[in-house]
Every structure is written in C-alpha cells, then in structure tokens.
Design goal:
It is a single chain. The chain is an all-beta fold. It has one domain: Butyryl-CoA Dehydrogenase, subunit A, domain 2, CATH 2.40.110.10. It has no helices and five strands. It has a three-stranded mixed beta sheet, with no helix packed on it. A two-stranded antiparallel ribbon has the order 2-3.
Length: 59
C-alpha cells in the first residue's frame, strides 16, 4: 500500500460506442500455460506509468 506498484485498466474499444462491455471484441484464449490476447483497445488508463505491474483487460 505504499504506492510502489500501479495497475492499468483496458476496456474501451475503437469500434464500440462508449464503454459497452457487452460489445467487446477482444479475446483472451488459453494456449498451454499462457493467455494469448487479441484485439485493440482505445484507451488503457494507467499503462503509461512505469510502475504499472498489473493489467486488467476486459475481453
């Protein structure tokens, strides 16, 4: 809780009006032990901070 680590949140997509989570086109598919993420996000809040270590992605 000392602020050393930051997080980011990615939901809004360029072809979707507003932040409608029911129309998200991005996907996250489990491939062995890793997830493969495909898609495009319009804005990812917090990603520009070099302390960002956690990403929340709506897929």
């Amino acid at each position: 809780m000392n602020g050393e680590i930051r997080s980011a949140f990615a939901m809004t997509e360029p072809a979707v009006a507003s932040s409608d989570a029911t129309n998200i086109c991005s996907s996250a598919v489990l491939d062995g032990d890793e997830y493969v993420i495909n898609g495009e996000k319009w804005w990812t809040s917090g990603a520009g901070d070099p302390r960002c270590k956690v990403l929340f992605l709506c897929a």
